[in-house]
Amino acid sequence: MPTTTLRTAGGSVVMAIPKRILELVNLHAGSVVDIDVRDGSLVIEPIKVRQYKLADLLAQCDLNAPLSDSENAWLDTPSVGLEQHP
Questions:
Q1: In what helix (H) or strand (E) does residue 8 lie, and over which residues does it extend?
Q2: How many Cβ atoms sit within 10 Å of the Cβ of residue 17?
Q3: What pLDDT digit, counting tens, does each position of 40-77 carry?
């Protein structure tokens, strides 16, 4: 099993994880993980970021629901930039 050294970076302590280990658990730089301590061991687990499909989100919408006052106010707000097309 590979070893690594904890280092100080600014006000935090960081750990370099060998690429081979990251590949085994399907992680990469930028992955979001949960950190916990269990039985005296540091446990790092990936957090699965839910992928949404537009069709699924729209299926949850009630297209016949009345608009709220704030939604109507937003729709009535005049354009201030290039959001309108000719």
A1: strand 6-9
A2: 14
A3: 999 999 998 788 999 999 999 999 999 999 999 999 99
Measured in whole angstroms, the distance separating CA 11 from the mean position of its chain's CA atoms is: 23
Mean pLDDT of 17-32: 93
* Helix (H) or strand (E) run with residue 42 in it: strand 41-46
| Residues of the chain above pLDDT 90, percent | 79
Q: Does domain 1-65 have CATH number 2.10.260.10?
A: yes
Q: What does the block give as tokens for 56? A: 């699924």
Domain boundaries, the chain: 1-65
The amino acid sitting at 78 is P
